[in-house]
Amino acid sequence: PNPVMDRTVVALDLRAKNPVEICIxxxxxxxxxxxxxxxxxxxxxxYMLDLKDLTRGIYSCRVQIGNEMITRKIIKIE
Length: 78
Prior knowledge:
Blueprint: E1 7-14, E2 18-25, E3 31-40, E4 43-50, E5 57-65, E6 68-76
Antiparallel strand pairs: 1-4, 2-3, 2-5, 5-6
């Protein structure tokens, strides 16, 4: 949920065994943080993202599950 402070959770329900990659991008399109999880089993998952070293602002969170990609806006407050 937005806005976020130091941490946020990405909740997913995986349909098949896939790798999961989560990237946080700034408005210029640079990847600032990346988390990679290999061989994730199907079912509900929660991934805790540590964002405390990011400054206040607007970011994009891109989640890639196998070949599928989802992007959402994150508003970071201090």
